């Protein structure tokens, strides 16, 4: 295995206590992760919030891609905001958006944006996007004797839609000169739940392999009957782990936890790139950010950019009916956008570019009652 494995231990180890919170006014000030053993400090300037004065319960659901980051963030947030209980259930981006639309939760995690046709279903009105981190979607595989694998977009598209059915296929061999590939049958594994990971993975195939990929893109896709499905990233990882010849798409955190091998993917510049956090950061740096803070790092330019890098957001309603909930949401998001950036890499995510984090912090003032 290669260098991304170095944070597999921090993924399951608790960080040391976060430093004390700042004063209670809403002026901008520097926020740092002052006592987090093994994680880098964040010097991004956030709102000066007295976390100890916040109270209430925030329920969230959605993206399984961002779950490891959210779980770490809420554990650390509890140390400085003991009056706030944050709950997050990984249910898939589609389910999270539906829960927020129906006002079942106060926030949702999603790796895909709300479709224009679905916007009227959001009962609470206008929604704000808060980017939280980014990360690679790995193409993980289980193939005995093959420690290194390279795949171009056209070949990956052919595999995932069932056109290429054995590992010794000449098209795979052409991407892997010098590698002996077995004649093992390919078992394609995909998500069965509505998923932002699916959306971003299939978006890459649609953009990077338009002449081969025929299944379109979205939170759900009509996969061939020959493929196998599982719920959530962790479910896909587990199925790949136990299936000889399997291949599928999994976020980096779950792929590392399952000790999976993952392929290098050919990027827009023609380079085969491993799904490392540095390569994900290169993709995030090259993405254009829209006014609503949505952005797309998929198939980004640059020699070192990993082409299947996923954005992820927490989405909330702009107008809140309860002042305590509004304050707690601001505190939770402010913490993620400042201290949270300091420990993102320890749980398998690339921190946001500082400029994007600062834009998200500035947007906190739009959460009102």
Structural notes for this entry:
This protein is of the alpha/beta class and 369 residues long. It has a domain at 136-285: Periplasmic binding protein-like II (D-Maltodextrin-Binding Protein, domain 2). It is built from 11 helices and 14 strands. The protein has helices at residues 67-80, 93-101, 153-160, 170-175, 196-208, 232-241, 252-257, 277-285, 323-337, 339-343, 354-363, and strands at 28-30, 45-47, 56-62, 84-90, 107-110, 127-142, 150-151, 187-191, 228-230, 246-251, 261-262, 264-266, 272-273, 309-317. Strands 3, 4, 5, 6, 8, 9, 10, 11 and 14 form a 9-stranded mixed beta sheet that branches. Strands 7-12-13 form a 3-stranded mixed beta sheet. It is elongated, with a radius of gyration of 20 Å. The termini are far apart. The relative contact order is 0.20.
SSE order and pairing:
Elements (H helix, E strand, L loop, with lengths): L27 E3 L14 E3 L8 E7 L4 H14 L3 E7 L2 H9 L5 E4 L16 E16 L7 E2 L1 H8 L9 H6 L11 E5 L4 H13 L19 E3 L1 H10 L4 E6 H6 L3 E2 L1 E3 L5 E2 L3 H9 L23 E9 L5 H15 L1 H5 L10 H10 L6
Parallel strand pairs: 3-4, 3-5, 7-12, 8-9, 8-10
Antiparallel strand pairs: 1-2, 5-14, 6-10, 6-11, 6-14, 12-13
Strand content: 15-25%
For this structure, the CATH topology of the domain at 136-285 is D-Maltodextrin-Binding Protein, domain 2
Cα gyration radius (Å): 20 Å
Could you tell me how far the N terminus lies from the C terminus, measured between alpha carbons in angstroms?
A: 50 Å
Q: Determine the number of helices (DSSP H or I, runs of at least 4 residues).
A: 11
Largest sheet: 9 strands, mixed
This entry's quaternary arrangement is single chain
CATH architecture of the domain at 136-285: 3-Layer(aba) Sandwich
Q: Strand pairing plus helix content: what structural class?
A: alpha/beta
Low-confidence stretches: 1-40
